């Protein structure tokens, strides 16, 4: 936290100001250098969403998203999936008990759709602790050679029964953005169209949208992220809508909801 410094002489004040100006200049140059070294996803490119299991990307794919446990696909733009705002169903016990969001009765708040415990990002201290652990996963993505990171469940506050706020979510993802950028990774906003206008404050570089065609949200993502949007549709109607309205601008794919691998029952991947 910044501290106020009281100078006792005019010379001391001038020296302090000069030093601050130099520090600010150096900091600005460093941030510009880091930003310049980020590799952003191409617009309107072949895309495959493989977070349910890695496999050989189909012909024409230039962008692929995979779980952090997988390796990047050689020669492509690789996005690393990280569950940042909730605990995986089999990993709840791996988190300190006080970092799991709890209701007034002390029960853990659960995302019922995916049976995932929400992480408690409601205070600066807890956000810092959670970001420390997620930051290690981001480091792992960088070490493996991914180009970007996709922190999932940015919208967990909407499932928190009012215990978390949009400001909590934005403050937390800003911590992750700084860590990603420090490792020269771009960082994507996952869903949460209502916060697309906060992208600069949050330090986000592109969007990973699920069903923006189905729900008529692609335009908002496209405007906020200058068409650097990868969209996953889970229905044929959603795919048709997304392609009709934004097929020449965004990177769009139709997948099955469980994002399974080829040969699995229910596997679906289409681009038209």
What keywords describe this structure?
two-stranded antiparallel sheet; 9-stranded mixed sheet; single chain; alpha/beta; 272 residues; 11 strands; disordered N terminus; globular
Q: What can you see in these coordinates?
A:
This protein is an alpha/beta fold and 272 residues long. Helix content is 32%, strand content 18%. The protein has six helices and eleven strands. The chain has helices at 10-36, 124-144, 166-182, 199-202, 218-224, 236-246, and strands spanning 46-50, 61-67, 77-83, 110-111, 116-117, 148-152, 186-190, 206-210, 229-233, 251-255, 269-270. The chain is globular, with a radius of gyration of 21 Å. Mean pLDDT is 89; it is low at 1-35.
Computed over alpha carbons, the radius of gyration is 21 Å
* Share of residues in helices: 25-40%
Q: State the separation between the terminal residues, measured CA to CA.
A: 52 Å
Content of β-strand: 15-25%
- How many DSSP-defined strands? 11
Supply the helix-strand structural class: alpha/beta
Number of helices: 6
The overall average pLDDT, rounded, is: 89
SSE sequence, one letter per element? HEEEEEHEHEHEHEHEE
Poorly predicted segments: 1-35
Order of strands in the sheet with most strands: 1-2-3-6-7-8-9-10-11
Largest sheet descriptor? 9 strands, mixed
Shape: globular
């Amino acid at each position: 936290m910044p501290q106020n410094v009281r100078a006792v002489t005019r010379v001391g004040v001038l020296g302090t100001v000069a030093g601050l100006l130099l520090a600010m200049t150096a900091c600005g140059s460093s941030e510009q250098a880091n930003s310049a070294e980020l590799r952003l996803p191409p617009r309107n490119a072949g895309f495959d969403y493989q977070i349910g299991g890695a496999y050989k990307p189909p012909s024409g794919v230039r962008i692929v998203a995979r779980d952090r446990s997988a390796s990047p696909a050689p020669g492509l733009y690789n996005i690393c999936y990280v569950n940042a705002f909730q605990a995986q169903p089999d990993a709840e016990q791996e988190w300190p008990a006080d970092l799991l969001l709890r209701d007034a009765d002390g029960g853990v708040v659960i995302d019922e759709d995916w049976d995932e415990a929400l992480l408690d990002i409601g205070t600066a201290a807890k956000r810092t602790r959670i970001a420390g652990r997620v930051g290690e996963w981001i480091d792992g993505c960088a070490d493996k050679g991914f180009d970007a990171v996709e922190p999932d469940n940015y919208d967990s506050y909407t499932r928190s029964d009012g215990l978390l706020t949009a400001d909590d979510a934005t403050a937390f993802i800003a911590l992750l953005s700084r860590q990603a950028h420090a490792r020269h990774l771009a960082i994507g906003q996952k869903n949460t169209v209502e916060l697309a206008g906060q992208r600069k404050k949050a330090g986000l570089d592109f969007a990973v949208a699920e069903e923006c065609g189905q729900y008529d949200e692609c335009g908002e993502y496209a405007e906020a992220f200058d068409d650097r949007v990868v969209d996953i549709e889970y229905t044929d109607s959603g795919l048709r809508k997304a392609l009709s309205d934004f097929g020449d601008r965004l990177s769009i794919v139709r997948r099955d909801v469980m994002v399974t691998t080829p040969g699995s029952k229910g596997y679906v991947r289409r681009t038209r």
